[in-house]
Amino acid sequence: MRTAAIGTVKYAFAILLALWVIVPIYFITLAAFSTEEAVYAYPKQLVPRDMSTDTMRFFLDSEGVVPSLQRSILVALLTLVIALGLGVPAGYALARFAFRGADTFRLGIVATRAFPIVILSIPLAVIFLRWGIDDTVYGVAIAHAALALPFAVLVTSSVFAGISVELEEAAMTLGCNRFSAIVRIVLPLALPGLAAAAIFVFIISWNEVFAAAILTLEERTLPAQILTLLNASPLPFKFAGGFFLLAPSLLVILVIRKYLFNMWGRVVK
Amino acid sequence: MAEVRFQSVRKTFGKVAAVDDVDLEIADGEFVVLLGPSGCGKTTLLRCLAGLEKVDGGKVEIGGRNATDLPPRRRRIAMVFQSYAVFPHMKVYDNVAFGLKMQRESKATIKERVGSAASLLHIEDYLDRYPSQLSGGQRQRVAVARAIATKADVLLMDEPLSNLDALLRMEMRAELKALLQKLDATTIYVTHDQVEALSMGDRIAVMNSGRIVQVDNPLAVYDQPADIFVGGFIGTPPMNFVAAQVIANGAAPTAQLSGGTLPLGEDARPLAGKDVVLGIRAESINVQTTPGDGMIRASVVVVEPLGSHNLLTVRTGDDMLKVSTPPNLFPAPESDVWLQIAPERIRWMDAVTGAAVSDASEVTPSRVDVLTRAPDTGAAPAPS
Asked: Do A177 and B71 touch (CB under 8 A)?
């Protein structure tokens, strides 16, 4: 009886937590796909009735939204290239080689997250000004890559750690060198995990607003653009913008759950 | 086809010498088993040969070429791993073909060689499947097929049967032996299972703490262990070891045990007055229920019927001995029996060094290197 009671409480708590997250998302989504009148209507509708793309169209037609959307995609792709370009080899090294200072390195990676971007962005802005990459997608991408790199390294290292070294060694006895063993054996097996890491990095950049807002004036990414316009914009714009920022992250979390668990030490083969 | 030679090979991990100055020569087409307890360095030695570990000293020769600094792919070896290491993202066919593809063989050659390797290992029906659809035993076969398909000069096997269940292991053991005899490839086989070693190898190299203690054919390793370690490691039950003093005042030499006196052959005379350890195999002891000349009295502690024979644990003086008897002999516990031991079946060991002695002059209180002492069969241990 007691365990049953505990189970019930546990479930009730879990449902409560889930609702706390799901309800706002639900309302944002609902508002983003309803007519303008429905957005302003009170009491709010609870079930989708007259669905419409009016709100979305209004948002996309707003001044500066489409260019900032393009910039956001570009920045996210650049971030992806930089963070994975550096992160995948680093993750492989951490997973495969016991080198001097490996643990310190691992700790250092996590420690970079100890400095909030709020603190870093001012000196970063100064440096970027000096280098002349302020207010450019490259500057934002570099800052985002710095934010995403720790995750890229840790996730990919857990992906590589889950692939038996003996497979690589077998490939090497069968005619591969280390590089071709990685290309032919390790990468195909790591691909799902690497894809997950890539999507994760993409989303980190996609959702990042603070550095993007500090480092740019004209060349704003979508979150920075929305943040700037937020107070001055009507409700439909806010809902549509919110949905636009939210949706990709949700999809991604669905896809990469498994690998995030891996990252916290539950390495599965 | 190639011969293999280790010359003073050393490999250390931190401060631990995993392989400590190993010399070993393996003839072309020979099947040598590296046998030892876990952590003795046998797998490390194999990996040094494969090129998967860089040696810290010494030389590795394969087929007369100095392979010490060659990467694995240039050594003309093939290896079967303990975990099989079958590539999970490739079908069985592509697994077996992998080495051949890397060697850029023609499509026709690949097809033919994969086919023959698959038929040797009876996996023709699975070529189109992924490894995850196979049982452990079938994956094992894929791993072996992949290794033999490349027709490498030297075949390396790292405990290939240890992940199989007991029955399958016994089956695979015989099948693998038959297969390797057919292939006639130089094979080096690592195992900690002495039964596997005894049953499969042309020669066994017994390793202990990074060193090769004895290299001999299986029977010699079993009957004439080079030291107490080998005698104790090989055989079920292990060899009995009994401390004794050799006495030879005029009459025939005898060994004074804590439980009685054992007659020795004339060749033991030079051992007179020395402390030795007698190594005696369980089946070398003949159990009698009535006393007789030159027998030692012992009392039965336990009788374990094993079907084909009975295993007795008996006490004589301070010593406990394992003795195997015919299955029809059932002495009651705590009853007395008499042990008859043929002098030529006794292995003398140096009480100080633990090394076997074939010649009394070799018994010394000083430290004697176990490696340099040849067993009396004349079969050479590691050449130095």
From this structure: yes
